[in-house]
Amino acid sequence: MFQINDNLALVQTVDFFTPIVDEPEIYGQIAAVNSLNDIYAMGGTPISALSIVCYPQKGDFDVLGEILLGGQKALNRENVVVLGGHSIDDQEMKFGYAVTGIIDPKKIVKNSGAKAGDVLILTKPIGTGVISTAVKFNKTNEKVKNESVKTMTTSVREASKIMQAVEANGCTDITGFGLLGHAYELAKASNVTLRIESTKVPLLPDIIELIKEKMLTRGDKNNRVYVGETVKFSENVSKEMQSALFDPQTAGGLLISLGADKADYFTKRIKESKVIGSVKDYEGIFIDVK
């Protein structure tokens, strides 16, 4: 954050990645939505972006044009202006944005503000990493793929607005570290224990079945290492469900910590959102999964 005056600050973020879908325009849209997540997670308003393009010099530039178009369309929907960007020759395609946003420094929603007594709300279902892997190996169908794409191309702008309106205590977006990795960061920064009810966590279609077929990314192992021994699972939480909770997400939802009396207002306005747990005083572990 760079504070300009008492009522205005700049917030910035950058994110880019390799394709996770075959359709160039959809890839561009997902990259744009993903790049805005950090700004929205703070309660900020994105205003401008710079594109980041890594693309082979001998590649098909019509494909690149479709990627850029997809990103432009997604940013237009958010009233974000693309001011320019930079490209380099790279045999492995990558795309994303550096985004600038504005925020009232007195109203920033931090990932260190979760309080005992709060409830935890997740604004999108999880499972995009599993489904992306299944698509690569032709292990799933178009309906499941389309549900994943719909999730990844859906903005969290409205969720961010409502989060600000109800004065949420803490928030983090769910991306590469998976639900539990980012929940761990929220819990550690806030010095609390998050109790997550696994049966209440919304999942994309067929996730458990696909995990049984070993449709996992490297993130499953890496994210387990990242949280270490700070997570405790009850015996009734299956290995497949554990993997779902560790699954790395692209353009995932927001994990929001807010007062229990505000949860009903929030979930009625953000239809896909679900209450998935609660915040406790620190109990010697950061996450307790039931």
Structure description:
The chain is of the alpha+beta class and 290 residues long. It has two domains: 2-106, 60s Ribosomal Protein L30, Chain: A, CATH 3.30.1330.10; 118-289, Phosphoribosyl-aminoimidazole Synthetase, Chain A, domain 2 (Alpha-Beta Complex). The chain is 37% helix and 27% strand. It contains ten helices and twelve strands. The strands form two sheets. It has a seven-stranded mixed β-sheet with strand order 7-10-6-11-8-12-9, with helices on both faces. A hairpin with a 2-residue loop joins strand 1 (2-5) and strand 2.
Q: Which stretches are low in confidence, meaning pLDDT under 50 for 5 or more residues running?
A: none
- Note the overall shape: globular
Rounded mean pLDDT is: 96
CATH first level of the largest domain: which class?
A: Alpha Beta
Within CATH, the superfamily of the largest domain carries the name PurM-like C-terminal domain
The largest beta-sheet arranges its strands as 7-10-6-11-8-12-9
Computed CA radius of gyration, to the nearest angstrom: 19 Å
